[in-house]
Amino acid sequence: MIRVVAIVSLMALLILVLYLPSAHPPERFVAQLRIEHEQTAEFWSAKRAERILTRTLDAQESTTQFNPIPTLRQAPDPSRVDSAVALEMSAVNARLFNNPYFRSIDAQLLLATFRLFTLLAWLPWLLAFGVAALFDGAVVRVIKAKQFTHHDPEMFALYACAVIVLACGTVVALVLPVTLPVLLLPGVPVVMAVFAAGALGNFHRRG
Prior knowledge:
- This protein is mainly α.
- It has helices at 2-23, 26-43, 46-62, 83-97, 100-146, 153-175, 184-201.
């Protein structure tokens, strides 16, 4: 059951992530980033919002080295390669990657990175709750083993599937060009910790 849920969730995630850039222009993702930047500044502060935006732009610049489109520095040396071949390869790369779909993917990645850094800014406050929830699940598991209480495999599968679906849904939420409530993303680690604790508490243990 867990394997089936994981495969279906990952396939749905892949389809949605690849479909969204074809359905929305890059301007839509950039406009959504501006909206959420203003939302973050109102909820926290302009200084914190600027810090998150700066980290997002720095991360985008660091990923340019993996760009499949060759830069002028990476271009072939005309003295060693026929200029006609070099021009043709440059035109092919431009047609393949310099189109609205790939520009939408770049904008989608920028929006997802901004939301990810926003979520990471919440983690110091959420980490204590997550550790406490997992510790509680581990204690429940040990107590059940000492009392010779049967661990419930159905409940373990249910909680594990919930964690998988929630994780995939979070990735979709990161790339979705709609305005998300401010407390939606911070609530995801809390709910995931509760489900993970439930799965841990029902995981089989001997002795």
